[in-house]
């Protein structure tokens, strides 16, 4: 347990209806005794007058006390529910931090203590950070499952299986003098390892889904200059995010907006029109456009439906790797059907024609790409890398030819690697990074 007692405003920006201060550590009960007229009955709201050191009233509000270890942090934890005025909160924080051993908390410090005291593991802490950051329904569902221990249960289950398989092998070392029972055990262990490796590989295959849900399904609008790309971005975002003009080559930088399509976060990008150019700045923009297309989950290849001639330079299907949706813009000025290239749909940013259909198509593509948001998916690159490392150790083709001692050693190393997922092994340098993602008071 830590020595210091930490204090912070855990509720949001002031002024607010109510402000919640949290006090965690050995000084929480003495602080209640000194400033709130006594320590309330555990886990029961109690109306108190909060006073400063000289007995002056700060505010009247509700007080709560959660004795260790049954609190969120695992330490003695007190809460003050005050009126949410700036001066009220400033006076309360001032009175609390004037007490010996009490200081203001750093970002993520309550959660860090919950982790240090074994109340939550690293995947649950990450889930909590994601829950606070969640902006769409899909993100919330993924985060609430992870904060509730879904990934922890999966990874701890894998670690337990590795320990069991190792125990079988270790038992075999002890009996290796007693005939050939050992071969069956070894074959059983190799089978068990293969089954586990299969599940890990399936989990890894879903990594991209988890990342899309957390970070957004990336849609890039690309096409020749003046096709109406920026107008389409503005129509989909319902605001003037990008400059629109009749001059070809208007957009240079990649311009990104965030959309919530049926609960899936979508990052929609507008890019520079693709064409051969001698303008250095425009060329940099086109290079960025190509990179964005290569990294997209879906490219909207937009052609000008009133003039498809520039398409010969910058073709519809320029992107080889990302899935493409072929869209004709300026549907209000559409050329005769015979003059039009093959396309999935026509839209007009000017009249709104086809925009709802395009939104529905994007939402369906995003939803089908992420699948069930409550499924247990690796959500971060960190998860993907560690699982891939451990899987590499378990799928080493030499494994089945090694003596049992060395197989056991490989299983131990794979288990240690997985231990980094839940934060029990070799993650010291990572902890500061992960907990600093939180705000103060969490
Ligand atoms: N006022 C307030 N609301 C809050 C929080 C908080 O800290 N304070 N939380 C902060 O994130 C979340 C709730 N999370 C909590 C998780 C566990 C316990 C807790 O005391 N657990 C005990 C006993 C559980 C029980 O009564 O059954 C335990 O697990 O031992 C409390 C809050 C959201 N709402
Ligand atoms: N009639 C009509 N005009 C449109 C439509 N969409 C865009 N325009 C016009 O087409 C011109 C180019 O539009 P932008 O959205 O700037 O085109 P862009 O593809 O972003 O162009 P660059 O950034 O230069 O590559 C502007 O004059 C727009 O007003 C549309 O749906 N109908
Ligand atoms: Mg543009």
TrEMBL record:
EC numbers: 3.6.-.-
Cofactor info, note text: Binds 1 potassium ion per subunit.
UniProt GO cellular component terms: cytoplasm
Primary location: cytoplasm
Transmembrane segments: none
Entry binding sites for (6S)-5-formyl-5,6,7,8-tetrahydrofolate: 22, 79, 119, 442
Protein residues bound to K(+): 226, 245, 247, 250
Official protein name in the record: tRNA modification GTPase MnmE
Source species: Aureimonas pseudogalii
Species classification: Bacteria, Pseudomonadati, Pseudomonadota, Alphaproteobacteria, Hyphomicrobiales
